[in-house]
């Protein structure tokens, strides 16, 4: 690399490591935004704090200081970075304590998600560090810095750690601190790798620098706790998948299949939990039933056998029945005329009703009233529509008991939707 370019890079990185007013103001603003967003459990606000945070600048300078062995520049960048960490920890701890005083002593998912880092977080940090260093070498890629700040998330883990320390939740605070160290070393290692691949001068420095070797060793040490956490994540994912499959099996057999109740709607599966700490694992199913005798012991045993056959593992099925009593007064059907609800006075037509009679070919239908050729010679007289035997029979049917017709319609509709093939439309 040309000395002039190396000197120019050194000057630029030295400027990024300044602990000045801009760095302090942006750090305070990012800390307040991220902490308040975490307390409100608002992901969008937390992302805003990530964008405002200026920590990627001194951390990127650390990569350059490690590569060229510039110890004063390395110390300056780390001092600026950890000064920002101290400010954020203090502010977030104060906000966490104030939140506890006003009753906000329970944290949401945004806080909990940052207490258990794993290998995925290290992969994100490595990628973000590589992009951040590449953007420094290529000015046309500077637009990626905002996305890098969002991806790497240096400020939120420190905010989480400060708030958890104020609540004396030491284990969770240690997990948030581990996430920050993971991001820190991931960015450092990713930056070293991309700069070594981009420039032959830096490649030689990466291979010969002791500071680079220390960075790689520390990142390798992180693989142990992160690998354990990742394994736990995989186990939880496998358990959740198994629980979902078992829940589908239980619902299928308790609600749909003839092995248990057929189409009986008296059983509704509300919740399925699995206790993996027992041997064999216990499946607890919460069902809501209108018949307290369902499901029976025989039916539960059949479902348990089917689950064990599908999963290849012996489970013990325990069903908790919550009986629901359906209460409602009896009300006779409406038989009198009702002008407000006219549909109550007429039965709904069904596919089994006979079709209307066809009109004679010699009749002309100009509108609602039907006129025949005999009535056309009579001025000022309107012809009444003819009524044949079929129409009279329909009127007689309309005058029958509405309750019986509604009952017939309901039974016909139930049979057509549950039993056998659909009934063809006689109008087609």
Fraction of residues in β-strands = 5-15%
What are the secondary-structure elements, in order, as H or E?
HHHHHHHHHHHHEEHEHH
Number of strands: 3
**Average of pLDDT:** 76
With helices defined by DSSP (H or I, 4 residues minimum), what is the helix count?
15
Q: What is the global morphology?
A: elongated
Oligomer: single chain
The largest pleated sheet is described as:
3 strands, mixed
Q: Unreliable runs, pLDDT <50, ≥5 residues? A: 258-263, 367-428
Radius of gyration: 38 Å
User: Which structural class is indicated by helix and strand composition?
Assistant: mainly alpha
Q: Report the span from N to C terminus.
A: 86 Å
Q: What's the arrangement of strands in the largest beta sheet?
A: 1-2-3
Helix content: 55-70%
């Amino acid at each position: 690399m040309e000395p002039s370019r190396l000197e120019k890079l050194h000057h630029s990185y030295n400027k990024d490591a300044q602990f000045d007013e801009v760095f302090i103001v942006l750090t305070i603003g990012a800390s307040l935004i991220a902490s308040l967003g975490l307390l409100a459990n608002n992901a969008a606000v937390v992302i805003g704090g990530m964008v405002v945070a200026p920590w990627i600048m001194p951390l990127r300078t650390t990569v350059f200081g490690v590569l060229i062995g510039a110890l004063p520049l390395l110390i300056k960048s780390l001092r600026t970075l950890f000064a920002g960490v101290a400010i954020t920890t203090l502010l977030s701890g104060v906000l966490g304590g104030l939140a506890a005083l006003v009753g906000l002593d329970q944290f949401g998912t945004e806080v909990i998600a940052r207490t258990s880092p794993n290998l995925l977080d290290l992969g994100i940090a490595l990628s973000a560090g590589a992009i951040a260093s590449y953007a420094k070498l290529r000015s046309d890629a500077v637009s990626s810095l905002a996305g890098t700040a969002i991806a790497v998330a240096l400020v939120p883990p420190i905010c989480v750690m400060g708030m958890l320390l104020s609540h004396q939740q030491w284990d969770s605070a240690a997990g948030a601190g581990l996430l920050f160290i993971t991001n820190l070393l991931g960015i450092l290692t990713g930056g070293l790798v991309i700069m070594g691949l981009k420039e032959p001068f830096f490649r030689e420095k990466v291979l010969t620098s002791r500071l680079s070797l220390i960075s790689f060793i520390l990142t390798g040490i992180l693989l142990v706790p992160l690998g354990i956490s990742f394994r736990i994540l995989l186990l939880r994912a496998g358990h959740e998948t198994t629980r979902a499959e078992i829940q589908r099996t239980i619902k299928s057999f308790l609600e749909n299949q003839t092995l248990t109740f057929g189409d009986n709607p008296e059983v509704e599966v509300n919740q399925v939990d699995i206790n993996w700490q027992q041997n064999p694992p216990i499946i607890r199913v919460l069902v809501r039933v209108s018949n307290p005798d369902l499901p029976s012991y025989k039916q539960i045993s059949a479902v348990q056998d089917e689950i064990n056959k599908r999963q290849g593992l012996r489970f013990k099925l325990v069903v908790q029945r919550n009986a629901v009593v359906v209460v409602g007064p009896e009300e006779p059907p409406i038989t009198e005329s009702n002008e407000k609800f006219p549909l109550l006075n007429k039965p709904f037509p069904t596919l089994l009703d006979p079709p209307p009679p066809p009109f004679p070919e010699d009749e002309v239908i100009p509108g609602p009233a039907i006129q025949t050729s005999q009535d056309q010679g009579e001025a000022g007289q309107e012809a009444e529509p003819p009524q044949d035997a079929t129409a009279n029979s329909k009127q007689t049917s309309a005058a029958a008991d509405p309750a019986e017709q509604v009952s017939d319609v309901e039974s016909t509709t139930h049979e057509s939707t549950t039993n056998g093939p659909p009934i063809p439309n006689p109008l087609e």
